[in-house]
Queue: 3 jobs
Job 1
Amino acid sequence: MLRDEKTRERIKPFSDMLKAMRQRLNLTQRKMSDELGVVERTVRAIENLETEPSLETQNKIKKKYQEVFG
């Protein structure tokens, strides 16, 4: 888990959005990770505030699920 509370607070909105979007699309963490081309641990760690998503991962998510972003 991220030790820096400010970092956790900063990434929490993205983490919450990712989890809500995944659930809305009825995807498991494994299925979402497969669709994004990342390891399952990446999706799980972002949702659990254990890691900050890289810019590359954020862009993959936005590109893949752009219809959800509007």
Job 2
Amino acid sequence: MSSKPHIVFCFSDQHNPDVMGWRGDPWVRTPHLDQLRAEGCAQEACYCASPLCVPSRCSLLSTRLPQNTGLFINDQCLPSDKVTFAHELANAGYRTVLAGRMHFKGPDMHHGFHERWVGDIGDPSFAGKGQAKGSRKYKIYGAGHASLEESGPGFSRVMEYDQAVLDGACQRLEDYAAGDVTDPLFLTVGFYGPHNPYVCEPERYQYYYDTLPRTPLPALPEDLHPTVRAELERLKMTNPDPEAVHRSKAAYYGLVQTLDDHVGRLRERVAATLGDNVIFIYASDHGDLAGAHGTFWKTSFYEESVRVPMIWSGPGIPRGHTIDAPSSLLDFGVSLISQAEGNPMPETDGQNLWPAIQGHEEADPQRSIFSQYANRKPNQRPAAMIRKGNYKLIYHDLEDARPQLFDLEQDPKEQQDLGVSPSPEQARMIQDLTAELLANWDPKQADQTAKAAAVHMRRLHAFDSQHPFWSYQGWKGSADEH
């Protein structure tokens, strides 16, 4: 029996990093995540590599920024000949298992995981067929006003899927523990919540509908960045219905509480089957604005969208420990490999935070953190973010578009864009941060890569819709209609 700890990684989708009790939210009920944080280490300023599902997840697995993976849109596939941190954990002696969501596209549903205990939601195809079956109420809407209009109490395939993932993972843990266990387990349990649709169980929804204050979305400022304004117009969010906003926020809070329940039950089963020698980690692939800055969803570099929760607990990790320095999801795999005493990734944009997580050293407070986005939506242009110290700069690749600059220490909610009328010192900061960002980010190349990928994806969609050429490996649910 190996002395290495088991590792259980609970990975959610679209969790606003501030919608947790321990983060000071006075309304949400997240006792299990609060307890996890009290027992371990929280990275307070952890950022995703891209505020979009597949690019973020592929960067997490490869520990590489999107510009280095070439993955910018949700239909792209992580190449099977590229090493992930799951491969290296397996090489270090771990049995790597995936239960639930990782949003892989294409025929390779493993990428370093020895086995999958529960499949993904939707076909393993480029088109992602199967995700939107059933009546309109239960479709998995993307960003747009439709998901607000359809919000409220009820049932969705996201809720059904996450329950199936939890049940399947818990049962297989029982089977695993009852077997001849010799290798330490690295188990990733991937939930789809609290991703929209903004629909949750009626009683829970009603609690938040009655409890949450009816805070109207603020009027758009006259000096709002033109790129941000154009995105709100594309999403039809320049003047959203206040009732739809309140319904959506109530449902989102209910989905977060449901996720918290799942985390609690999973931890109980892990303790009962794997014992005490377990590192338990919780994170999300990106956030959800959940009403901040006048909108919902992701694909934004505002804090609620691009920053993620990241909590570690287990042997050797101090209780109540905090890493305040900016960090990245790219560090996750690098740190796990270090803990496992495995071979480092052949190429990486992440850093080893394992000593800092253990409290043995301080993380670098002046480290530069990057996030990149180049999705092919109408009228969108590539954008990128750099966080350094207290300042965050958002660069928009649009002619005559100025960068946005925020002082996160003085203005954590990003209400004052210092790029509008910067002081001489702030102007120098903008110049320096822009130069550093562009030294690590080529928006023209990113746009060309995403554009070329979109062409291929359209052709593959057409082919796959007529000639599916691999067998279904995903989760179908109890029924196609509800």
Job 3
Amino acid sequence: MRTHLTAAAAGFLLLAGIGAAAADTVVIQPEQETVIKEYVKKKPLASVKLPGVELNIGTALPDTVELHEVPNVKYRYTVIDNRTVIVDPDTHKVVKIIE
């Protein structure tokens, strides 16, 4: 009986961990992405270099990076190494890279 409880507890913890990891995933709706892309085309920015920073989803950008607002959208954008990145302004983490 103890073995069954331990296995059940381990399974529950595993599923809980997966749920917590999934909660960190940011989903930008297609409508929002379209709004962001159109706005970025209208308001192009100069590209900045961030030596030593590998640009990926989840990368936390330094606080010194200036983030620019997109009207009616929570996220901000900037251009790094000629790539437009969408950033969560609360965490400064990259949530999407627009190619």
